Amino acid sequence: MDGGLLVTGRSRPALLVLAALAVVLGVVALIKARDVGFTDANPASVDPGAMLFGTDDDLPWGKLLQFNPLGALVTFSFGVLALIGGWLRLRWLVLVAAVGFGACAIQVLVQFGRDSNVLGGRGGNLGVFLALSVGLAVLALTPVADEDRRS
Amino acid sequence: MTTGETDPRAAGPPMDRPALGGRASRAAIWLVRIVVALVWLQGAGWKRPPDFGESTASGLYRYTAYAVDYPVFGPWKWFVQDIVLPNFTAFGWLVLITEAALGAFLLIGLATRFWAIVGALQALAIGLSAANGPNEFGGTYWVLVVANLALFATAAGRVGGLDGVLRPAWRASRRRVARWMVACS
């Protein structure tokens, strides 16, 4: 271990990629959600199928993720936090982002399908928030092996 | 768990061994993992709590009821009719969380071999429920079963995934959770 403050070794590039993906997702979501209410419960979808292949957004299985502006902004913000944490090698900052994405996942579980859904997410968002939360946390917390410490 | 390169049965001239080490093969198995993960995320996307379509006989409820209305396998029909449908809300939550977790862990390539087995079983359960339903192409579900088995067989998280990044640290650790992660990756 390195005292619990730094992100080092092989974990760091992977962490930066994961954080960058969260930032990109947040930006795309902000663009897609620009015309809906800030906390709309059933907002615009971010569907790679529709964006890449022109499939019908209205099909029930055509939607992968959906965001309102608040959900997009939160995703972008936690992504930026993780990116800064990875860049500056600050483990605690990465963990803050991981906990934040975990809270977003819990929000989807609690509010998706109800009248109030403040981040506007659905089941796909639950998976992505879980991936970002667990991925960032595991990368930040896994002790660095000797072979990595030398690098 | 080991992969082909350490298996003595894979011995022989290099040109006759399974092509799992080449760049094209690694890119292909990475692509399979990402696409399978997106399929699971998309599956989680249309499961809508809190009743998962039970009140309107739509959504997940309708597809699950295909197991009874258009049975594929007798014992599965009994299981769905007598166990799943009477407890549908709990079942709906289980499906939503399982499919979201499948998408999450396969997407980042963490504990990939474990989640690939979970995915194969989940795809099998879906196939046994919906393969004979109207306007369904049953082959889709069996392809999803074997796609998940392919992720297991190739330890796909070691290619462009967190398993590949973290396995050296897990192998160097004596902690029980690290040993579990080695086994699951």
3D architecture notes:
- The complex is a heterodimer of chains A (151) and B (185).
- Chain A is an all-alpha fold.
- Chain A has one domain (23-50, 63-143).
- Chain A has helices at residues 11-32, 48-53, 69-87, 91-111, 123-141, 146-149, and strands spanning 45-46, 65-66.
- Chain A has a two-stranded antiparallel ribbon with strand order 1-2.
- In chain A, helix 3 runs antiparallel to helix 4 (91-111).
- Chain B is an all-alpha fold.
- Chain B starts with 22 loop residues before the first helix and ends with a helix.
- In chain B, helix 1 (23-45) packs antiparallel against helix 4 (88-108).
- Chain B is built from 8 helices and no strands.
- The radius of gyration of chain B is 19 Å and the shape is elongated.
- The mean pLDDT of chain B is 90.
- The A-B interface holds A 10-11, 14, 18, 48-49, 60-61, 63-65, 109, 112-114, 122-124, 126-128, 130-131, 134-135, 138-139, 142-148 and B 38, 40-50, 59, 96-97, 99-105, 107-108, 110, 162, 165-166, 168-173.
Which features would summarize this protein structure in a list?
heterodimer; A: 151 residues; mainly alpha; 3% strand; elongated; disordered C terminus; B: 185 residues; 8 helices
What layout of secondary structure does this protein have?
The complex is a heterodimer of chains A (151) and B (185).
Chain A: H1 11-32, E1 45-46, H2 48-53, E2 65-66, H3 69-87, H4 91-111, H5 123-141, H6 146-149
Antiparallel strand pairs in A: 1-2
Chain B: H1 23-45, H2 59-69, H3 74-84, H4 88-108, H5 112-130, H6 139-153, H7 162-172, H8 176-184
